[in-house]
Structure formats: C-alpha cells, structure tokens
Amino acid sequence: MQVNYYGDPITTLIEEFSKLPGIGGKSAQRLAFHIIRQSEERARSLATAIIEAKENVRYCSLCCNLTDADPCRICNNTKRLQGTIMVVEDPRDMAAYERTNEYRGLYHVLHGAISPMNGIGPDELRIKELLSRIDPGVIREIIIATNPNVEGEATALYLGRLIKPLGISVTRIAHGVPVGGDLEFVDEVTLTRALEGRREI
Length: 201
What we know:
This protein is of the alpha/beta class.
C-alpha cells in the first residue's frame, strides 16, 4: 500500500503504475511525476492511446497475433508465402523476425510456452488454433521459433510430435540465438542466421 504523501490522485496514479510488469515503487513514482509535469494535452493523448488500444486491439482469428483488423495485415497479405508458418511465443517475437526483412511466410502466435512449473499446459496456448490452420495440401513447413530455453524446447518438442504425423516438415530455428535468451532482444543478423540454419525436429 502506497503511503499517501502527495494526495489521492498522485497516490492512485503511482499505485496503478506499480501494477505494471517490471515497474517497482520508485519507477512508478518517477512515471507518475513525469505524467504530472506533462502538459494536459500530452496526458490526455496518453490516456486516449491506452483506451483506444484496449478497445480496438483483438486477436487475429487466423494467427492469433494482436491486431486492430481481422484478419491481421500479415495474414491478409497475399504476397506472403502461404505454405510456411513460423510459430512464435509472443507478438514481440513476430515483430523481431519482421524487422529482419528475411522471412516472407505466415506466423502463428502461441501467447506463451508450456511450463508445468507455472501451471501452463498446452490447453492454455493457441495450439488448437494452429492445428486448425494446417492443411497438408497447402502448408509445407512449420518453423518452430520458440525461445531457446527449457519452456521453449518443451513446446517445440510437443508441437513436433503433434504435427509431424500430418506429413508436414517441422523445423526448429538454429541456436545462433543464445540459450536462455528472448527473441525480442536478439539482433536481426542473429535471427536471420537462426532462421537459415533451422533443422528438422
């Protein structure tokens, strides 16, 4: 509970910021005071952006990426290679691969990885949606680009066991990506090499 040194509005703002991931008490206080020092126009612009994102962002009905249009712009792009789907854990991982300008296929976002320690099983991920997209007459390759950590590897193996019997090539990105790292923080060159060096699962 935040001690009310500054009055209710600022204390409430600090408390709300402190509920965000990775934001401790001091960071929340810095953010709150930064907002207070901004012009009213800037503060309203931030508030409007938050509300509009919450109201308008949804999941793409095909790839489960976050989007304001359904299907999303990538799924809707007929110039993308329709026979390849890259499976990622998080929308930020998809964005990381898009920045490489090397991958031209489609994506599927799981929104997490299998982690029994955290109570996350296959049913908590967007795996059913992935399986419903796999038409062996159209899809030739599934690239599994989950993070190179214990959870990511468990998820890759699980997906490989589900998909390989369908007669589709299942590959895993190479480990040019550091073990234990998150894709969103990896540079574009490393991501490109990991994609090029992918292997069969």
